[in-house]
Amino acid sequence: MNKCLFCFSVVLSLISCGKDEPELIPMRRTIIVYMAADNDLSADAYADLEEMKRGYSETDVCLVVMLDAADEAPCLLQIIDGGQQIIKTYSEFNSGDAAAMKSVLSEIVEMYPSESYGLVLWSHGTSWLPAGMQLKSFGRDGDKQMDIPDVAEALPVRFDFILMDACLMGAAEVVWELKDKTDFIIASPAETIYEGFPYEQIIPELLRPKVNLTDVARSYFEYYDNLNGAYRSAAISVIDTRGLAALAAATARLTEGQPFDITTFDRTSVQRLDIYDEQYVFDMLDFLEKAFPDADKQPFMEQLAKTVLYSAHTPQFIGQYDIRTCCGLSCYILHPQRADLNKYYKSLGWYVDGGFNRLF
């Protein structure tokens, strides 16, 4: 019997018969995929699910998927060698609600005890902007999205890694909020093509005893870099969250005492990483270089190299803009006409800890 299924069958027997609990031997790793797809991404969710099945082979790593699609009730699936098994069908809930996500993830962790956990957050993405702006955040189910601080609060354990299959999540503001819940984050500082990650290629790597997250990110980049036309569009990073505190300190030191006037600064001169007319997401290094051309950036650059372990990008994104440079982390530059967003931005941890409060 598949090792993961054996572990789950023991859990079921405890629930059904109420006998003395035998000692449960944790699996080596459980990877949880949270697919908030009760929206226009449903077809893509089913396609990615099929890729996961093709990429999975029997091992002591459990691959568990919470799928909330548009045409059926949310369900919990376990990917097994050759297919899938439905573990549970839920009463309808909103997968864009942080409390619902916390409840589901906590239940999965309890059902699948493991030595370590990985997490894939799959949905519309993105970046730090507040829910309800019809722009960004994480997840979408009806009119519900999650603010990133609420996503962090909903995570019940510290994960070895979080892979974010959603747009614009490779932002300094986002990874700062999630840094206490994972050691590593794989995310795109730009938007992502609807096909998302090539799961058939990356699942075998995620099953290895020692996962090489750089190889996972490289597979994503190479998959899109080998396509043609607008489909040749990607940016991806691997962030070591254990280096973020030092990076924030280095950023704050760089901004300290430096003259900067947001009212005269040309935001459009900085490498953009989104397709929105107003522009919300910019390459962080390019911003700091243009904002402080005479400042000593060497300490920041050295810590950036220790924190962003891998970064790659295609030459352009869906024909909307060229990607001349991308350090692996994006950031926001205050928009002079968006007082609503600017006010919310100042509530985020990076605003103070990264020293951006000295700029805006």
Question: In brief, what are we looking at here?
Answer:
This protein is α/β, with parallel strands linked by helices and 360 residues long. It folds into two domains: 25-242, Rossmann fold (3-Layer(aba) Sandwich), CATH 3.40.50; 245-307 and 329-358, no CATH class.
Features:
single chain; 360 residues; 2 domains; nine-stranded mixed beta sheet; two-stranded antiparallel ribbon
Would you write up a description of this structure?
The structure is a single chain. The protein has twelve helices and 15 strands. By secondary structure, it is an alpha/beta fold. It folds into two domains: 218 residues, Rossmann fold (3-Layer(aba) Sandwich), CATH 3.40.50; 93 residues, no CATH class. The chain has a nine-stranded mixed β-sheet, sandwiched between helices. The N and C termini lie far apart (59 Å).
Helix tally equals: 12
CATH topology of the largest domain: Rossmann fold
Can you write the helix and strand succession as a string?
HEHEEEHEEEHEHEHHEHEHHEEEEHH
Q: Please state the overall shape, judged from the principal axes of the Cα atoms.
A: globular
Report Rg: 21 Å
List the helices and strands and how they pair.
Blueprint: H1 3-17, E1 29-37, H2 42-55, E2 61-69, E3 75-80, E4 83-89, H3 98-111, E5 117-122, E6 138-141, E7 144-146, H4 148-154, E8 159-165, H5 172-178, E9 182-187, H6 199-206, H7 213-225, E10 235-240, H8 244-255, E11 282-283, H9 284-291, H10 298-307, E12 308-313, E13 316-317, E14 321-322, E15 330-331, H11 339-345, H12 349-353
Parallel strand pairs: 1-2, 1-5, 5-8, 8-9
Antiparallel strand pairs: 2-3, 3-4, 6-7, 9-10, 10-12, 11-15, 13-14
